[in-house]
Structures are given as structure tokens and as C-alpha cells.
Amino acid sequence: MTFAGEGTHGSALKTTNPITDKQIQSNPLMTGAQYAEAIKACHAAFEDWRHVPAKDRAATIKKIGKALRNHADKFASA
Fold first, then answer.
1. Could you please report the per-residue DSSP string of the chain?
2. CA-based nearest residue to 30, from 39, 42, 17, 18
3. Model confidence over 47-60: pLDDT tens digits?
4. Torsion angle, CA of 34/35/36/42, rounded to 10 degrees?
């Protein structure tokens, strides 16, 4: 979702392939309340994450990187 702030028109953010001009996907816009709730959730997650030892955080980030590399083809074609 994307925040529907000032200057945003329509009910969705559309992703378009610049070569073919074909729409790839459409993402609904968030309301102000949804946006505020998302910020609260991110802040709460950070409060937990900041207390995780650096060694454990590094291990988690490495796992995420490995998963991204293992699915790179899928992401590249999306």
C-alpha cells in the first residue's frame, strides 16, 4: 500500500513497464489512519529489534540476503 497524501490522484499506485507501457501491477493507497497504524507498527518492531544483540541481528540479515539471492529470478521477472 502507498499513502494517499496530498497531490495523489486516484485510488491506486500503478507500476508500469517503461519499455512496453504495460501496467505491471496496481497497489491500493492507504488512508491516513492506515498510514498512522503502519508507522506505529514499524516503531514497535524497531523497539524490539534494537534490543537484539548485533550478532543475532547480523545473522537474521544474512538469512534475508540469502533468501533474496535464492529468489532473485522471481523478483527480476515480477
1. -EE--TT--SSEEEEE-TTT--EEEEEEEEPHHHHHHHHHHHHHHHHHHTTS-HHHHHHHHHHHHHHHHHTHHHHHH-
2. 39
3. 999 999 999 999 99
4. 110
Residue 62 is placed in which grid cell? 544474512
Position 31 scores a pLDDT of 87
DSSP 60-77: HHHHHHHHHHHTHHHHHH
Q: How far apart are CA 45 and CA 22, in angstroms?
A: 36
Q: Which of 74, 72, 76, 45 is nearest to 60 (CA)?
A: 45
Compute the distance between CA of residue 77 and CA of residue 53 in angstroms, rounded to an integer. 36
